[in-house]
Specification:
single chain; about 500 residues; mainly alpha; about 75% helix; globular
Length: about 500
């Protein structure tokens, strides 16, 4: 309980700091407008927008443009890197514990269905608005760039300042758990130092031109797929169905508690699926984005989802679930029981590489989000800085790399649950609705890719997110709701000072 209170305090204090920075950025503009007593409300807003847009335009003229150097192979491999990473290697014990038996494996199937529905949401939005920052643009355009969209995009950036470091920390902390296989006596402090080192290493590796990053992503993807492939093949050759079907008494006694437990299992599994949309965050650097983005998302979900289900079932078919619940490095133990300690050592090394690749891919995508908002004039100007010769957002990358080291101090299960709930409340649910908003009210936006069987995928994704939110527990629901309310409050304060929506009655909404 003390740690949960500390987590809430860290989040809220961080956002107070962010609000102070926003004040510093926008207050001078506000004071200049106040001195013009004869200006009408509409004129003041027009001046504000023209000053912001001219400033952004001037910055863009001075800043180098991003390169479109990511093709279908690089985009798909980057998505798969973030999806696989450490997730399937650490979440199985947590998932089994949510329902106390192998019936929790149903969470993998349900999460896969939700991921496919949500992936089609991302595919349609990503093909229609293929720019750096992804959801920042989707929410702004869907809900109105001069009206509610201003607040929705602000809340997404607000949320990203927390969810991005949490996402990066989850991979780094998960990696540190597998280090315990080599170093059983390592304490908590040593594990945290390793996690911090991982975040700083990935930041250093990403400090380069995007084409080099694309090639490095493919190389890491090959290592990751070989690792997962080894686990799947070994499991298929040695698993026993009797262990998989070793259900506890009343394993399928349907009740509200059972469904809540399944929702929690699906939430944990969904964490491992997360990452299929990573390409949308750096859509401004993708070749032929209207075709590459949808394909890379769908390919990643189908390939990785199939491997996840097979891997989880076969591991439980080798390591009895009652033992698996208490083994943090479950995949290493799985290989040890089949091939011995030498093979387990090699597998652990491969998993460490996969975990490093996951943090690498996530940091690549997230670093483009504050950059896109800064270029648009809605975030701190420093985040719009681009390297003069290597053409990547320097300050944004450094900021996320450093802040992620602080979130590495939290426990893994808390990181995962907090990360998922924050994103569900502030991003995933509004984004599902954004597809319908664009279809109905933004006929001016071309949609090169249209989701299949609309609106079924949207409804599946929406129902899945709501179900997982309920199953997460009341304390995490309160945390997500508090962050959303604080984000709304921060936006309204800024909007009132800058005479933006909804405080300008004469403003024409989009």
């Amino acid at each position: 309980m003390v740690q949960r209170e500390w987590l809430v305090r860290v989040f809220l204090n961080a956002h107070v700091c962010i609000w102070v920075f926003f004040e510093a950025q926008f207050l001078p503009l506000q004071e200049n407008l106040k001195t013009d007593g004869n200006c009408s409300s509409l004129r003041r807003t027009a001046v504000a927008w023209s000053l912001k847009e001219s400033t952004v335009a001037d910055n863009l003229e001075k800043q180098p443009a991003l390169n479109r150097g990511i093709g279908l192979l690089e985009a798909s491999s980057t998505n798969m890197l973030q999806m696989i990473g450490i997730g399937p290697f650490i979440t199985l014990p947590i998932l089994l514990a949510t329902m106390g038996g192998p019936q929790a494996l149903l969470g993998w199937f349900l999460a896969g269905i939700v991921a496919l529905g949500d992936g089609l949401v991302w595919a349609e939005l990503g093909a229609a608005l293929p720019g750096a920052g992804g959801p920042y643009h989707y929410l702004k355009e869907a809900y109105g760039p001069r009206s509610l969209g201003q607040m929705m995009s602000f809340i997404y950036i607000w949320e990203t300042t927390m969810s991005a470091p949490l996402s990066l920390a989850s991979g780094a902390v998960g990696l540190s758990l597998y280090v315990k296989f080599f170093w059983p006596s390592i304490g908590l402090a040593g594990q945290k130092l390793i996690a911090i080192f991982v975040c700083l290493t990935c930041m250093t590796l990403l400090y380069r031109e995007i084409r080099s990053v694309g090639k490095l992503s493919v190389a890491l993807w090959i290592v990751v797929m070989l690792t997962l492939g080894w686990v799947v093949v070994a499991g298929l050759m040695h698993f026993r169905m009797g262990l998989v079907l070793d259900f506890p008494q009343n394993a399928f006694q349907l009740s509200p508690h059972w469904f809540l437990g399944l929702g929690g299992a699906t939430l944990i599994a969904m964490y491992s699926y997360g990452g299929y949309s990573n390409v949308c965050l750096f859509g401004g650097e993708v070749k032929n984005p209207t075709r590459t983005i949808p394909r890379s998302i769908i390919y990643a979900i189908l390939v990785v989802g199939t491997l996840y289900i097979i891997m989880s079932v076969t591991i439980v078919g080798v390591v009895p679930w009652r033992e698996a619940i208490g083994i943090p490095y479950i995949v290493s133990e799985f290989i040890r029981r089949i091939y011995g300690s030498g093979a387990a050592t090699l597998m652990t090394l491969l998993i460490l590489c996969a975990s490093l690749a996951s943090v690498f891919a996530a940091m690549l995508g997230y670093s483009r989000v504050p950059y896109a908002a800064a270029v648009d004039g809605r975030f701190f100007k420093a985040f719009a800085k681009v390297h003069p010769t290597k053409h990547f957002p320097t300050f944004s990358l450094l900021f996320l790399g450093i802040t992620s080291t602080f979130t590495c101090l939290l426990n893994l299960d808390m990181i995962i649950s907090a990360l998922m709930v924050i994103q569900i409340v502030t991003q995933f649910i509004p984004q599902v609705l954004a597809v319908t908003m664009i279809r109905r009210y933004r006929k001016d936006i071309a949609r090169p890719f249209r989701m299949w069987l609309y609106p079924v995928p949207s409804l599946v994704a929406l129902a899945g997110w709501l179900w997982m939110l309920i199953g997460s527990g009341w304390h995490f629901i309160l945390l997500g709701s508090a962050i959303l309310l604080f984000g709304i409050g921060a936006y309204l304060l800024q909007a009132k000072q800058n005479r933006e929506w909804p405080f300008l009655q004469d403003q024409v909404t989009a």
